[in-house]
Automatic annotation (TrEMBL):
Organism: Acinetobacter brisouii CIP 110357
EC number, as in UniProt: 2.7.13.3
Any single Gene Ontology cellular-component annotation: membrane
Annotated ranges, domain Histidine kinase/HSP90-like ATPase: 298-391
GO molecular function, one term: protein dimerization activity
Keywords, in A-Z order: ATP-binding, Kinase, Nucleotide-binding, Phosphoprotein, Transferase, Two-component regulatory system
CDD domains, alphabetized: HATPase_UhpB-NarQ-NarX-like
Catalysed reactions, as listed in the record: ATP + protein L-histidine = ADP + protein N-phospho-L-histidine
Domain of life: Bacteria
Gene3D superfamilies attached to this UniProt entry: 1.20.5.1930, Histidine kinase-like ATPase, C-terminal domain
Signal peptide start and end residues: none
SMART domains found in the cross-reference section: HATPase_c (SM00387)
InterPro entries listed in its UniProt record: HATPase_C_sf, HATPase_dom, Sensor_HK_TwoCompSys, Sig_transdc_His_kin_sub3_dim/P
Record protein name field: histidine kinase
Amino acid sequence: MKVWQSLSQVWQKRRIGVDVAETSLQQQLLAAQFEVILLRLMLNIARVEQPNEQLPELLHDLQQQLDSTFAMQHVPKLCFVLCYPFTQECFIYHAQSTQLERQDLNQIQSVLLNQTYYAQSQVENLLQIQNHQARLLLLGQEMVVWRLYVQQTNAIESSLQPHLQQLDDALQQGFQYWIEQQQKRQAILLKERREFAAELHDSIAQVLGFLRLKSAQLHSLCKNQPSYSALLPLSEDLASYTHYAYQQTRELITASRLAYQELDFASALKKVMDEFAHQSSISFELDNRVAHLNVSAKYAMQLLYIIRESLSNVVRHSHASSAQVRIEYLVSGALQICICDNGRGIQLKNKRSDSFGLEIMQERAERIGAELRFVANSPQGTCVILHLEQH
């Protein structure tokens, strides 16, 4: 009997040892699998080129891997939130299986944009937004990245906490790699723009400047010499089109310089108005009632082009003594820009040979979904009114 008991005790000890070893191996295997998941995650984030398409797919795959790896534990639903302080934009990326109500989306965007824009130096690392938990991953001047757990009402299991901390670290590193790649691409693009602006200035702009002067001289000669009167319509068209081509080239140069100098919209607009003020005797006034322009950089550049063309028309055609640019948000939330002068007014029915500039302005407005109107100013002059609904 004693022998049997001794053998039983030995067997139990060995069985316990085997169980402990098996558990240890399972834990090591789980840790190795999780490290592979994190490494792939960092690599996939760094390779993202189209966030709207790739980040939701990445989140879907990640959520499936996490649910499979930690099958016995409740893994929170994960989202990424990217906020852009300059344009006041906020994008929430989630897997298609994740459900978020419109009210929740609005609340998340409002809170995180407020943290991002108004309190960057004192932004909280961890926020509870109703039933959602947000954690700050990256805080930069151009972009802020948050990790969001949605519908996180229950406490996260303690055994899962270290893994979720590893996940946050991997997400932070992955997005850091991604931002660095974007910055490298942006640096290359800015270098190309700088070289493009220099080439335009040194070659085409100088040639067009010479042609503009010669075509203007030719037109003046045709106007003053009766024997050349038959050539007057042709010389007028030639002078107008070469002048417009020169002007457009100068605008491309200015836009390229504004892009690589990374000026914000208000600074760029002031620079444009100062340029036209130096070119004419017209008094220009800027009435900017918008502290921060809530549009993307792409939209801001189109708005700048439209304003620039309007001011160019004021200088060339209006015979005005003063002009004003007013920027404001209406009660409806729409952005409205008015460029008004006290000149002789515009006659849209009697277009000049270079009036295609107005058509280009309309095309630019349509490109960003804005409405552009030309109305009479009171008591005299013209108002160009641009209306852009905010979405």
